[in-house]
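Suppose you are handed a protein chain with no further information: no name, no annotation, nothing but its sequence. What can you learn? This example shows the usual starting point.
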Amino acid sequence: MTNHTPGNPHTVPWQPAPKTGFLASLGPAQKAALFVGGGLMSIVLACCGGSTLIGALGGSPDPKASPAAAAAARPSALPTKGAAAEGLTVSPSAEPVVEPTLTGPVVEKRTVTETKTIAHGVKRVNDSTLAKGKNKVRTQGVNGTKKVTYEVTVTDGVETSRVQVREEITKQPVTEVILVGTKKPSCHPSYTGACVPIASDVDCAGGSGDGPAYVEGPVYIKGSDPYGLDGNGDGVGCE
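A reasonable first move is to predict its three-dimensional structure. Written in structure tokens, the prediction is:
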């Protein structure tokens, strides 16, 4: 092939341009070594864990490596003390939130013992030796005491029920006995119209006399007047 250059009367035969680059700079022996090494590398990648080699070159952890080695190879996401010293803020972990627990009412059982008074009774007894209308205390009444035990239920601090479970008498009461007179008084034979009792002295009821016995008038004198009931001597006393 002939290379014609405009304006150049001389004709120069065509020659290929010189080759440049990495391969062009290598000699025949170096090129042969490069081709042999590339073939060996292909065999290694195909049969001897090429993925492990690629992962190592790319920074990914070996899937067959131990967990400790994988953790050591993995970059830490937490800032170090040095990072905090450089101005990075490390947020502390939040405090656990305690949720309120809904519970039922608080019920408590208690045993309570109280001392109470037992009121004494009263008994009336007729006494024929005692004049009618007269009363006399023969036995003085005395109150007793007892201990009463309760089971008390308290709900949320408020008493809601009380049940008696035991009672013990610590002091028996004494019943009061009253004598009631039923004896009719004997009448003095010197008077009629009303019964004038036989006594050391008898005065008209409502008068100024001091007794000890009294009579409601009028009374009629039928004999002597031993008690002086007829003051004006007309035969009628306590008018």
